[in-house]
Amino acid sequence: MKKVKRKKRNFSKNFSQAKVFTAPNKETLLLRTIRGMKDILPEEQGYWNHIRRVLSRASQEYGFSRIDIPVVEYANLFTHSIGEGTDIVEKEMYVFTTKGGDRVALRPEFTVGLVRAYIQHGMNVMSKPIKLFCMGQTYRYDRPQEGRYREFSQANFDIFGEEDPIMDAHLVQLAHRILTNLGLRNIQFQINSIGCTQCRKDYRNLLISYLESRKQKLCQDCKWRLGINPMRILDCKEDKCLQVASSVPQSVDHLCEDCHKHFKSVLEYLDELNLPYVINHRLVRGLDYYNRTIFEIWVEREDGKLHSLGGGGRYDYLIKELGGEMTPAIGFAVGLDRIVIEMKKNKVKIYQEPKPRIFLAQLGDLAKKKSLNVFAELEKNGIIVAESFGRGSLKSQLRLADQAAVEITLIIGQKEALDGTVIVKNMKNGTQETVILEKLVPMIKKMLKSDVIISKVGNV
Ligand code: HAM
Fold first, then answer.
1. 184 vs 163: CA distance, rounded Å
2. 195, 203 in Cβ contact below 8 A?
3. Angle, CA 199 vertex, CA 196 and CA 203 arms, to 5°
4. Contact 94/297 with Cβ under 8 angstroms?
5. Tens-digit pLDDT profile for the chain (460 aa)?
6. How many Å lie between the centroid of ligand 1 and the Cα of residue 4?
7. Torsion of the alpha carbons at 433, 435, 441 and 447, rounded to the nearest 10
8. Dihedral in degrees, nearest 10, Cα atoms 251, 254, 260, 266
9. Atom number in ligand 1 closest to CA 287
């Protein structure tokens, strides 16, 4: 049988042009996604399904329970927890007032919403540690570029109720496991400790006096940050601030005894696991709720440049600050859009959904009606079937069956529809036979041997 080259559907090619539409006497509609947001088209979904599968599996293996929280929360929840003077709160939150007068925000991250859910649902009574996994869209009004979007997806792993440094290392282990399972290489963790409230206060004062003496050398934003959130200056990407930051006192040299011991243990566990980490003394993270261990996950590309894929750390005080009991907590998030970019760069082979091995063709009105039931019966038995119900010509349907490279084509014509039978055509050797409907499923299963395509597995 002549093999016809299968035409691939390419949605981006067909629809990538922005279109403007003006209805008569109506306003102009700009038919394109808004800046920093994107469609994830069918041809991209393989990467996303693959990531979701790996994340879901890892979350189960590491004992995390799935939780979903709303995209919208009260805005002051984020302002209070992430902190004034942070980029997220000052510049990047999508804040709006609802018709009911509530000031709300699209979530710029998950941690704060998770803590809100922990307190709201009284999870403190559950046995600890409580391990929660969630993923979904997040929103930050930042300047878009490759890997930085205004709508992006994160997966978060958070643990409530465990202070032991082994958890810190265990989470780094999990992040490493996820990324290597996704086929990424050259992962690097950068880690630091910013201490507890007490040693952080002492360090903060030291930092302020150091930075005050170099205030003139800082960028405009950092001059302002000095009065509000001096630690953020260490994170500034401006050349002049980077220079100042290169010689600031280091937080690890000013940890109290307990924090020092905690951080030392984390590093010992990481050494034991042989995980690729470096201590980055300037790492402070862009959110205020952290204390003690903080870390970021980077990938090194072929050109030697590092790209950030995720980050996290301890936030032992946040639950208490939001009105709950004192409960240590730690977590991290990875950015899924960035992982997709790296997977593409690394030409990672992704999981392929099973393809149909059977095509169902029909000819005539009655056959068309019957074919829906035949399709349903096969589908119920886990057999994936390709079809083209909208087409009437048998020739064009058979051409499609050929293109789909199926092994079996089922044909229902007027006669078969009346007799309650189906023609089963073996596409490999061209033989065909007529089978009564009741025997169709067992026969197909036999033909496909035990290798029946089960459509119900794998979708996460
Ligand atoms: P984050 O470092 O702000 O941490 O974000 C985590 C990851 O989300 C980043 O490393 C990056 O991969 C991705 N991401 C952030 N902004 C964008 C963007 N504009 N476009 C694309 N991807 C982006 C947090 O959000 C913390 N809540 C993580 C955490 C969980 N800490 C404790 N538990």
1. 30
2. yes
3. 125
4. no
5. 444 455 555 666 555 566 777 777 778 888 999 999 999 999 999 999 999 999 999 999 999 999 999 999 999 999 999 988 788 998 999 999 999 999 999 999 999 999 999 999 999 999 999 999 999 999 999 999 999 999 999 999 999 999 999 999 999 999 999 999 999 999 999 999 999 999 988 999 999 999 999 999 999 989 988 888 888 899 888 999 999 998 899 999 999 999 999 999 999 999 999 999 999 999 999 888 999 999 999 999 999 999 999 999 999 999 999 999 999 999 999 999 999 999 999 999 998 888 999 999 999 999 999 999 999 999 999 999 999 999 879 999 999 999 999 999 999 999 999 999 999 999 888 899 999 999 999 999 998 875 544 443 333 3
6. 46
7. -20
8. 10
9. 3
Burial label, 183 (beta-carbon count in 10 A; 0-12, 13-18, 19+): middle
Ligand 1 atom nearest to CA at 88: 3
Q: Atom 1 (ligand 1): residue with closest C-alpha?
A: 311
- Chain centre to alpha carbon of residue 42: 17
- Give the sheet arrangement for strand 306-314, strand by strand: 65-66, 130-139, 151-160, 329-335, 306-314, 291-300, 187-193, 277-279
| b/e 255-270 (16+ beta carbons within 10 angstroms → b) | bbeebbebbebbbebb
Q: Give the H or E element holding residue 375.
A: helix 365-380
Which residue is closest in CA terms to ligand 1's atom 31?
A: 312
Write down how long the chain is.
460
Atom nearest to 142 CA in ligand 1:
19
Q: Is 359 in contact with 387 (CB distance < 8 Å)?
A: yes
Q: Bridge-partner residues for 148, per DSSP?
A: 145
Whether 333 is in the pocket of ligand 1, judged by its Cβ within 6 Å, is yes
Q: What is the pTM of this model?
A: 0.90
